[in-house]
Specification:
The chain has helices at residues 3-8, 22-26, 40-47, 52-65, 97-115; strands spanning 72-77, 121-126. It has 131 residues and is mostly helical. It is extended and about 60 Å long. It starts with a helix and ends in a 5-residue tail after the last strand.
């Protein structure tokens, strides 16, 4: 199937490390002639390339809010989900208050060590409601 066409019908796309399967798809003997399976980095690049409109909106937002004038720390919270392969996932179902307090303290110390006494922002991402 055409990945770009199939994704256009969805507002939100979640990207997973499962894209590492692309080498397997590239060697699939049932792949029709002329069908191209991009390498992992090419596929991820095309999938994650923002549209011209998205770039303009992001730049407009950044200019209006002084985004980037302070260091930004990105944090991704993960949780366990029923039915998923949890081999490389956290032990707990979701981070508890103690863990979040510890994470906050670690981030504050890291920012202090790296940048000194400066104002900073945090970008928090999660993939589930639990997180």
């Amino acid at each position: 199937s055409d990945l770009a066409t199939s994704l256009n019908q969805h507002r939100i796309v979640s990207v997973s490390s499962n894209l590492y399967f692309t080498p397997l798809l590239q060697t699939n003997p049932h792949l029709k002639p002329g069908q191209e399976v991009l390498s992992f980095h090419e596929g991820l690049g095309r999938l994650m390339t923002p549209s011209v409109k998205a770039k303009k909106r992001a730049l407009s937002y950044a200019n209006k809010t002084s985004w980037g004038s302070a260091p930004i720390v990105a944090v991704h919270l993960r949780t366990r989900e029923v039915g998923e392969d949890n081999d490389d996932w956290p032990v707990a179902d979701a981070p508890d208050e103690e863990m979040l307090a510890s994470l906050t303290k670690c981030i504050e110390q890291a920012v202090q060590m790296e940048f000194g006494d400066v104002a900073w922002d945090v970008y928090l991402a999660s993939t589930t409601e639990k997180a």
